[in-house]
Amino acid sequence: MKDFNSTVTLEKEFLTPDEACRLLGCSRRSLEYWKKAQGLPFVKIGSFVRIDKAALLDWFRTFTIKRGGENNG
Q: Is 72 in contact with 64 (CB distance < 8 Å)?
């Protein structure tokens, strides 16, 4: 029998918008802009918005700048 406690992840997979802002160090206004204009991945279920942490970090990394000024995306 599988031990349930061994499969529980302590780290959250889905973030609220406020948690995503804290993770990225941005304002809520920036996050809303990125959702509408820049393709930030999110899920809306009823009035709840959740953001997949892994997808958010992957999306954010596409905007990183390499040395020499080249865009990584």
A: yes
47 assigned to some structural domain: yes
Check which CATH number belongs to the domain holding 31 and give it. 1.10.10.10
Do the domain assignments include residue 46?
yes
pLDDT in tens, 17-48: 999 999 999 999 999 999 999 999 999 999 99
In the predicted model, what is the mean pLDDT of residues 43-57? 95
**Residue 37: partners with Cβ closer than 8 Å, 6 or more residues away:** none
Q: Write out the two tokens for 33.
A: 């802009």
Task: Identify the domain containing residue 32 by its residue range.
Answer: 13-61
Inter-residue contact 62 to 71 (CB < 8 Å):
no
